[in-house]
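Ticket #4471: structure output looks truncated?

Reporter: J.K.
Steps to reproduce: submitted the chain below (338 residues) through the standard prediction queue, then opened the result file.
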Amino acid sequence: MSEEDIARLKVKDKPPFAKPLPQQIAVTQPIIPPQSQTSDFKDWSKTQSRAWLWALLAIIGVGTPLILWAAGVFKEAEGRIAFSSDRDGDWEIFVMDADGSNQTQLTNNTSADEFPAWSPDGRRIAFASRRDGDWEIFVMDADGRNQTHLTTRGGLDPAWSPDGRRIAFFSGRDGDWEIFVMDADGRNQTQLTTRGGLDPAWSPDGRHIAFQSDRDGDYEIFVMDADGRNQTQLSNNASDDENPAWNPDGRRIAFASYRDGDYEIFVMDADGRNQTQLTDNASWDRYPAWSSDGRRITFNSVRDGDDEIFMMDTDGSNQTQLTSNTSNDECPAWCPVE
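Returned output as attached by the reporter:
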């Protein structure tokens, strides 16, 4: 999270590079980039696959079909991406399929809702909202229902623990931005850092939390034990490194860095070694998020004049635009695999 982001979060609901607010864009008609259009063959194949599934269910009986059907529903869910968008005049939470289709609005109020984070089982989404005047953490069902308040003293950028029992977040409740952790129902809020911390990200094994901190004068990536001990610096350069995101096997961390004069996506080993640049353009690329199978990375980029969601392979190749409109779409989050 950049200084511009922090300033925005403190004083207003517009992004740092906001343009005049666009007219509302209907989300009932999905915005699909040309390369992601569904072919007739794909439609036929999907239909045939469903026919085979139902035939199989008819053969094996009643109990097993229920299990297979539930598994099929979850497999469909894991291909979804939640994100924030200001297309209706203020920031709201949306969800779309992994190819950019079926963009659906989940929240709808006159204040900002941002930073979506899926629960490990894919059934809930935590997010930050300014609907009560200050940034607080909320949670809702994956379809947008049952929106519930978790914090009352400030909270941003929630991150679920892999077991779904805890949520990390950062808060300025005591004057500085620090990392906190709480139970998934909002109880037992505990401060983990005392020298600054933002953008927490749990390791897949639940033992560590990566975060960014400016304790050395500029933002760098750090990692600590899940209880706040053993805080260790992973990146070290004269520019800001932000937005850490673990890959599913816990061996690598993607992040955004300003080291070449604008924000680009980098990846490094979990111990900070082998830092490698993945994107290279004259605009800002930030907020990386790994797909559940670890084969792709989504991020938001300003390369077309406003923030849009892009996807690429983990080596930086095959960069594909998923959203395309005159507003800002950012902070993508993949639905995880159980």
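Triage note (M.O.): checked the attachment and the full token line is present. The longest strand covers residues 80-85.
Status: closed, working as intended.
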